[in-house]
Amino acid sequence: MLFTITHITKLGYSHEISESVMEVRAMPRIDERQVLRQFELTVSPNVKTSHHKDWLENTVHQFSVLSVHDEVEVRARSIVETRPVEWVLSQFGARLDGLIRDHRSWDFLQYHGPVVDDPALPALSKQLGLDDVRQVGQAIDIVLQHTRDVISYRKGATTSASTVGDVLQAGAGVCQDFAHLSLALLRRVGVPCRYVSGYLYKEVGAELETHAWVEAFVPGVGWIGLDPTHGVMVSEDYVTIAVGRSYADVPPNRGVYRGKADESIHVNVAMERIDERARLTPYSTAIERPHRQPQSGIPMAPLKFNLGLEQQRIHPNAVGVIVQQQRQQQQ
């Protein structure tokens, strides 16, 4: 599928501030499942941006606004082509006790940030039958199918600081929490796995927001995507922005500013699927956004939706540290 994605983040301040320094993860990755055809990032006030690759090959843009200002707008626009994938878990017969655990997988086997080694995990793992499985595919299937039996999806049940233990105690959470719990369970039985931040496309009429899911490493296959929130394997409807050990590695933006102002955040994303006739070949160069063809003479508007993304902005003059955060939510 071919998508255009426009992601706008507006940061407003109650009083003028200065020296706003920020980093942004908004550029989709390029891998065997998706190809980035075009990307553009603009910032207002108009400042120069630079970018680098972090240790996991996520693209990170950074910029500084040194003049006095009371608003910052970051606009990211992408054209992404995703490819269909077919993963059959029953065919992933590699034995858990035979997995190679070296420096390449070490980071994705450790507890990190909100993915903690909670005392409740051993009993939960036994209850789900994870302690009895011997193959990678079986472990992934249990986590994929039964995470929703452990916690239910409910906005507001957790906060951005919630750990796996907090989520288990609440018995509910959002997509980040489903991903973090799944990571904790898979790592406990020795399956290297990572957190994924991105977008999930749905047809007209559905509530669309940013999303989070999990990738597990299968010997001889590579990284495969599973969505524990919906209990399905990742398809071509998913667009990946960044991967990490947990959400703590891949916030959509993070920064600091100088001033005593309060900050407000508004995020808007429009995601549109382009007509199949506009699909690009693997060797096409970047092009301007193709026009969709109206059906029956009725104009087709792009899908627009608001999403909550956790934003981390530190007030440097506060007593201690004040972190103003808006929660990333899931469809």
SSE class: mainly beta
Helix content range:
10-25%
Outline type: globular
Tell me which CATH architecture of the largest domain applies here: Roll
How large, in whole angstroms, is the Cα Rg?
A: 21 Å
Mean pLDDT over all positions:
83
CATH topology of the largest domain: C8orf32 fold
Number of strands: 17
End-to-end distance, in Å? 20 Å
Helix segment tally: 4
**Biggest sheet: strands, sense, closure?**
10 strands, mixed
Low-confidence stretches: 282-331
Explain this structure to me?
This protein is mainly beta and 331 residues long. The protein has two domains: 2-83 and 250-324, Immunoglobulin-like (Sandwich), CATH 2.60.40; 89-247, C8orf32 fold (Roll). Residues 282-331 have low confidence and may be disordered. Helix content is 13%, strand content 37%. The protein starts with a strand and ends in a 7-residue tail after the last strand. Strands 1, 2, 3, 4, 5, 13, 14, 15, 16 and 17 form a ten-stranded mixed sheet that branches. A five-stranded antiparallel sheet has the order 11-10-9-8-12, with helices on one face. The relative contact order is 0.21.
Task: Using brief descriptors, characterize the structure shown.
mainly beta, 4 helices, 2 domains, ten-stranded mixed beta sheet, 13% helix, Immunoglobulin-like, C8orf32 fold, 331 residues
Give the structure's gist in a few sentences.
This protein has 331 residues and is mainly beta.
